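Course assignment 3, question 2. Fill in each field.
Student: A.L.
Task: Predict the tertiary structure for the chain below.
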Amino acid sequence: MADWAVGDLASLIGTVVQGLLHTLIILGVINGLIDVALIWQCYHYAKWEQFKPLLTFLRIRKPAPATSESSPVALGSPNPTLVATVPETPKKSRWSTILHLVYVLAVVGLSIMVWGVVVARVRKTATLRPGEDGTDPDFSPVGAAFGWVSMVIYTTSRYPQIYKNWKSKSCHNLSIWIFILLVIYNATNISSILIKSRAHNYVIVNLPWIVNSSFNIILDLIIMAQFMWYRKIRHADPVAGQISEVQEERKEPV
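Answer field:
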């Protein structure tokens, strides 16, 4: 989370210094505020970790529902928390998928509407002379440096998560919808830059952000592929998948 905050700050400074699209600057501000909120949540909820041993003790002492000898998890299981685990029903999973899909479509639709209103307003009121529309920006070494720094931070922040998923054969505590929205976000970022202009100087100035979004799309697609692959493994062997998730929870720092 900290590296995302540093990356967003570097990206914001780079977009302001380079004088890039206003949407990129606004997104930099919004991303920075979201980072602050997420970091605050991490510190706020971390204090509840001190009660984790007590919660585990109460969970173990809670009477578990009776299971038959043929049940995948027997009463003598070394992982008592798995006994009370109820697998998610296909109907519930399908309904959750529909709700998340509607949410994603609503976000995309609302973004397009806001973009249309802003563009219509600017075209109606702006009286820019040739060269003042941002398609021929001046190259700033300082802005470019901040842009490339943010690109390196953004892209390298994905590798630890990909490695962790591969090592644990699980995407525990992650939501695939976050990465779906990130792919849409980065794809629209690239589109918004290239639709405005594809002049050589314009592309060179925006190159750090184009490369950044392109790499992040690839890495996010890899994480999404991990979601689908490890979900298939978990469905093939539910008990092993639950044990893996419990082990991951125990590895988390208290």
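Instructor remarks: Residues 67-86 have pLDDT under 50 and may be disordered. The domain at 2-49+89-251 is CATH 1.20.1280.290 (Monooxygenase).
Grade: pending
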